[in-house]
Amino acid sequence: MLNREFDRKEKIVMLLIAILLLGFFYFWMVKEPVAHRIAASDTTDLENQIQVEQQKNSRIKQMEQEMNQNETASTAVVATYDNFKQESIELNRIFAEAVSYSFSFEKPVASGETVRRNIGISFTAADYASARRMIDALHNDPYRCLIHDVSLAAIDHNSSDTDAVANLQNSQVSGSLTVTFYETLHDAATREGLEYDKSTDQNTKGPGLAGADFSNLQRSDLETAAESFAASH
């Protein structure tokens, strides 16, 4: 049996061979499989995100199409100005189903005999079905209105879980939209609180919403917020 000690040159050659073998083993057995898994995971996440966005856009477009189709069949009335109290009651009733909601108000604007009242709405719904019910209820409101700038997005409460992808089917939904209520100045008892567009006679302006009498209103969070907004502008 051969029993001799390797010389210095042979030891160096064997060490280099061992290092090369370890390098090949690491590359083929560790680095390459891990890289493939990472690439596959990135592709899956991207595909899921694309699917979620497509689903969201499809549902929003479907909602808008249905609202446009039903617009001609609307039985909503154009109320006489100032119908803010009744409109605010309806909004509070409709969005009571939401997990949370808030409103932002613009001053009503008169153009001839027509008054436009824009209200921005942000809300969180338990799911897409709940968000859809609230938007449908707003569309079917008894007072003539127009819904626009609708946006819906799934809320991801499991951002740390790579296997859980938030979508409109399995998550809470964050939504925002603007609703424009239409009123008429025909037989209106007051014109206070109005702003006028440039084509309207400026001499018919009232003293502004901050000076209007809201003492007889049944107060709500919506009405209080609107008065505070008007008083600060």
Walk me through the structure.
With 233 residues, this protein is of the alpha/beta class. It has a domain at 75-231: Alpha-Beta Plaits, CATH 3.30.70.60. It contains 4 helices and 7 strands. A hairpin with a 2-residue loop joins strand 3 and strand 4. The longest helix is centred in the first third of the chain and has 64 residues, at 8-71. The chain starts with 7 loop residues before the first helix and ends with a helix. Mean pLDDT is 76; it is low at 202-233.
Distance between the termini: 103 Å
What's the total count of β strands? Answer: 7
Q: Structural class, please?
A: alpha/beta
CATH architecture of the domain at 75-231: 2-Layer Sandwich
Order of SSEs:
HEHEEEHEEEH
Radius of gyration equals 32 Å
Shape category: rod-shaped
Biggest sheet: strands, sense, closure? 7 strands, mixed
CATH H-tier superfamily of the domain at 75-231: Ribosomal protein S6/Translation elongation factor EF1B
